[in-house]
Design goal:
It contains 17 helices and 13 strands. The two termini are about 45 Å apart. It is globular and about 65 Å long. Helices cover about 55% and strands about 10% of the residues. About 35% of the residues are buried. The protein has 3 domains: about 1-40 and about 150-215 and about 335-465, Alpha-Beta Plaits (2-Layer Sandwich); about 45-140, Taq DNA Polymerase, Chain T, domain 4 (Up-down Bundle); about 220-330, no CATH class. The mean pLDDT is about 95. It has a 4-stranded antiparallel sheet with strand order 11-12-8-13. A 3-stranded antiparallel sheet has the order 4-3-7, with no helix packed on it. It has a two-stranded antiparallel ribbon with strand order 1-2. Strand 1 (about 5) and strand 2 form a beta hairpin. It is an alpha+beta fold and about 475 residues long. Helix 10 (about 230-235) packs antiparallel against helix 11 and helix 12 (about 270-290) packs across helix 13. The chain binds a DNA duplex (12 and 16 nucleotides) through helix 4, helix 6, strand 6, helix 13 and helix 16.
DNA sequence: CGGGAGCGCGCG
DNA sequence: AAAGCGCGCGCTCCCG
């Protein structure tokens, strides 16, 4: 039994936080490297992109004004509400979400669900997307370059609740990646001539850790066999009969092998069935699977499934998928309950390295406050453990960096983006460094699941992965 | 005109 | 009514 003070609170019987302090200390040399180097930017390319975006936004704004009959500011949710709800009378398939101040929310999730009712919806979405990219990144970042044309960020390593790093002035952990224009922004960052960018990330690390921490046998087996987790969840959650179960698991296996570059022969029926299963069953199951790690409820899942192009499901159906997930992986349910109980009875949870998060709110008598804390309790050990693994890898990778430097190679640690590390490395050894880095990210910790990491090498950031 | 709340959205 | 975890940051709107 150990009694210590943590955050000014006396607590009994919790893991030794000594390892955490060591972890945080050991990753500092690499953070120093991040600060020292910065990312090389392509001014020319930024400038070109800025012209293109400006033109498209201007054009869209004009067309929106014609459509509406007045000058709508897409960045003003008041304007958007006035146009779409009051003047055009549009409605959402799942009803409206309210903001804290009691207004109907006009966020992109809701707008996407109203697509097709009126052309103004798509225009507003597109204007929003482009304005965000232009104002936050394309017009802003080039002003922040140093004399060498490199962009430096500041990482904070003591500011988050889960041990994650945060990045500010500017934030280089949220550079766009998901859209076509976003990738063009990433392509404005590059390695210097003679160098290449290397990135390596931990695959599905949070789901892997859910398996490791809970010890759930079904999930461990699934990861060991390399089967598709979301298909397994789907067939259980939707209560498919045995024959269909086996059929779809076989199809998911074929899809995986095909992705790995194997030649796979599909019949026409199989193709059609897989495509339908993927959209109608696997997508909801996948969405729920991620949501569960955040404590998502049925109504949250319902919105999310629609948002990602899945079917409109009833609340009952969503509840069914969530409980189906827990039936497929009962160990996860028990583990989640254990975190909830730690939060409710002791006001704290901790991760696999002993990092503690105090959650006194979980003891609150106000249900909304307590529920929020319980969600945080379920997520923290997973997010925090993932971060611990990356910090271990950062410490070990620093030795790798020194070894390469002794052989006169250029190696510049550039960024940590939560489950990913980015380096700039001389081109003659980039591939080799990447493989060594991957081995460190896998080997730095021993989990019940053999986890994996994947790397990528390219000249420009947007070409990675 | 600066500060801050509220909203929205980029990333993992 | 509430609504999914962790961040940083830009714009709008309102206040002093």
């Amino acid at each position: 039994m150990r009694t210590t003070l943590y955050g000014g609170v006396r607590i009994v019987d919790h893991p030794d936080p000594g390892n955490v302090y060591k972890l945080d200390l050991q990753c500092l040399p690499m953070i120093y490297e991040f600060h020292r180097h910065g990312l090389l930017a392509d001014r020319e390319r930024f400038a070109q992109l800025e012209v293109v975006l400006n033109a498209e936004i201007l054009d869209l704004n004009e067309r929106l004004a014609i459509e509406a009959g007045w000058e709508v500011n897409a960045a003003s949710s008041d304007d958007v509400r006035r146009l779409l709800i009051r003047e055009l009378g549009l409605s959402a398939p799942l009803g409206f979400q309210m903001t804290r101040s009691g207004q109907i929310s006009m966020d992109s999730e809701l707008l996407r669900s109203m697509r097709g009712q009126h052309p103004a919806v798509d225009m507003i979405l597109r204007i929003r997307e482009l304005r965000k990219l232009l104002n936050t990144y394309v017009a802003k970042l080039p002003q922040m370059l140093n004399a060498e044309g490199r962009l430096r960020t500041t990482f904070r390593h003591t500011s988050t609740e889960t041990g994650r790093l945060s990045s500010e002035n500017p934030n280089l952990q949220n550079i766009p990646a998901r859209t076509k224009t976003g990738i063009e922004i990433r392509n404005c960052f590059r390695a210097a001539p003679g160098n290449l960018l290397v990135s390596c990330d931990l695959s599905q690390i949070e789901m892997v850790l859910a398996g490791h921490l809970s010890g759930d046998e079904n999930m461990l087996r699934a990861f060991r066999d390399g089967s598709d987790i979301h298909t397994l969840t789907a067939v259980t959650a939707f209560c498919l009969p045995d024959s269909e179960r086996r059929y779809y698991i076989r199809l998911s296996d074929m899809a995986r092998r095909e992705e790995n570059g194997e030649a796979v022969v599909w019949t026409e029926d199989e193709r059609r069935d897989w495509k339908q299963f993927k959209q109608q069953k696997r997508l909801p199951a996948k969405t729920v699977g991620f949501g569960i790690l955040y404590g998502q409820t049925a109504s949250g899942a319902q919105w999310n499934i629609v948002d990602q192009g899945g079917p409109v499901l009833s609340i009952e159906a969503c509840e069914g998928i969530i409980s189906g997930f827990f039936d497929a992986y009962p160990g996860i349910r028990n583990w989640m309950r254990e975190q909830e109980s730690r939060a409710r009875t002791r006001g704290m949870v901790w991760d696999m390295f002993g990092r503690v998060r105090m959650l006194p709110a979980a003891m609150s008598e106000i249900p909304r406050i307590a529920r929020k804390a319980v969600r945080e309790a379920g997520n923290m050990p997973i997010q925090s453990s993932a971060q611990g693994i990356i910090k271990l890898a950062m410490a070990e990778a620093m030795e790798l960096v020194k070894r390469y430097r002794r052989q006169n190679h250029v190696v510049m640690p550039l960024l940590q983006i939560h489950d990913e590390l980015v380096f700039e490395v001389s081109e003659d050894c980039a591939e080799c460094f990447a493989a060594d880095l991957r081995d460190i990210m896998i080997g730095c910790v021993d989990l019940k699941v053999p986890h994996s990491a994947s790397y990528s090498v390219a000249e420009r950031w947007g070409e990675l992965k």
